[in-house]
Specification:
- By secondary structure, this protein is mainly alpha-helical.
- It has one domain.
- It contains 16 helices and no strands.
- The chain is globular, with a radius of gyration of 22 Å.
- The relative contact order is 0.13.
């Protein structure tokens, strides 16, 4: 027997089965991390830690190496850049704290890509993410309706961050086959909760992200026009019902959001300009992880007297400012290899087929994340990294189908 031969198929291996459970838990618990933090600040880190440990034990026990992909190379180089710029800027207040945040995401991404290409079904991971987000959406509606918040928050302290999780999960509901009435009802109910919760956050970035994801599903013929029309009609009916039963509360929420929105436009422009100045001044190694916050006052010439250490509210500018252009190029490389992997899966799959739908749905969710991140600093949240990992995993599984299958179908 070769030293790198798998001992048992994944479906019959108890350790692989346990790893699947931990992987599903990691995906499902990420959207409700605010609830977990209320129990204990470290509870949310248990599932990812078990995932990494279980993956290591499985690989050692079966004496198998991780499948080498461009993603692993990009992640390793990105980790090296983070470590280097953190060492150079170690005297900054937030550098160590934020540098430490990067490495678990890089490692979890590599693990998810590896197990998603082997032991753990991609569909199961995506549905686990959707299930967790649905719980978060229910919490959002509870915070608005029962607790009387003017903007839904629930499991995330910031409504915009909550919208980010919810809209990223909406495309995943199209993974559920519509042939079963019970499954159709469950996916419809989950979709109502997710969209309703996202609307209740009054997040404009979330609305744009959802529109982009749905447009992608329409263009690639996963979302039929009649289903979109029915969903839009349901949202209108729910909106009218909310206006009827909670009119004054909604009016107050809209007034507050209108006031906040005008302020947000001005402050985000200031922060984006400051981030651009940091990139120009420190193009190679940036200002260090987390150091946008400490450098902001100087770079913006004290533009916000009442906010001296904010985030950039733009993931791309913040990463470029903190890690420099090489770091940003590698960060973009993570997204790029995910897009290429998922597109390979789309082009190599039968049309139509569950595998093709799975890859397109994954792309739509990733697109929602990327659009929302133009208005938020979301590099420290799991959806970006997990969806990128699964995009690569989809490409890995496509390769297993045979080298000749894809080129012939592309032609």
């Amino acid at each position: 027997m070769n030293a790198f031969t798998v001992v048992l198929p994944a479906e019959r291996d108890p350790l692989a089965a346990a790893l699947r459970v931990v992987a599903y838990a990691t995906m499902a618990l990420a959207p409700v991390e605010g609830y977990l933090a209320a129990v204990h600040p470290q509870v949310g880190k248990v599932a990812p830690a078990l995932l990494i440990a279980g993956w290591l034990v499985l690989r050692i026990r079966h004496r198998t190496l991780p499948r080498l992909t461009p993603l692993q190379v990009v992640l390793a180089l990105l980790g090296a850049v983070v470590a280097t710029t953190a060492a150079v800027h170690s005297a900054e207040v937030f550098t160590v704290e934020y540098a430490v945040r990067w490495f678990p995401f890089l490692l979890v991404t590599a693990v998810l890509a590896d197990i998603g290409g082997r032991e753990v079904p991609i569909r199961g991971l995506l549905l686990a993410m959707a299930a967790g987000a649905t719980v978060a959406g229910a919490g959002a509606l509870y915070s608005l309706i029962v607790e009387g918040n003017t903007r839904a928050s629930g499991p995330q302290p910031d409504p915009n961050d909550l919208a980010y999780f919810l809209v990223a999960a909406v495309p995943l509901l199209f993974l559920t086959p519509r042939v079963s009435r019970s499954r159709f009802f469950a996916s419809t109910l989950a979709g109502t909760v997710l969209v309703g919760g996202a609307v209740a956050t009054f997040s404009r970035g979330g609305a744009l992200a959802l529109a982009a994801a749905l447009a992608w599903l329409l263009v690639r013929r996963v979302l039929p026009w009649r289903v979109l029309a029915a969903a839009a009609g349901s949202v209108v009916v729910l909106g009218l019902g909310a206006l009827l039963f909670a009119g004054p509360q909604l009016e107050r929420a809209v007034q507050e959001k209108t006031f906040i929105a005008a302020t947000n436009v001005d402050t985000r422009e200031l922060r984006w300009q400051a981030a651009a100045r940091m990139v120009a001044a420190h193009p190679v190694l940036g200002v260090g992880p987390g150091s946008f916050r400490t450098q902001y006052a100087a770079a913006s010439h004290n533009a916000e007297i009442d906010e001296q250490t904010p985030v950039a509210h733009n993931m791309y500018l913040e990463v470029a400012a903190e890690l420099g252009l090489p770091g940003f190029a590698l960060f973009a490389g993570v997204i790029g290899v995910a897009v290429l992997g998922s597109e390979r899966a789309v082009r190599c799959a039968e049309r139509p087929s569950p595998a093709r739908t799975e890859a397109i749905v994954l792309q739509a969710a990733l697109l929602a994340v990327l659009v929302a991140s133009a208005f938020l600093s979301e590099q420290y949240y799991l959806p970006l990294w997990s969806l990128a990992a699964l995009g690569v995993a989809a490409g890995i599984r496509t390769g297993k189908a045979g080298a000749d299958a894809c080129p012939a179908r592309d032609q």
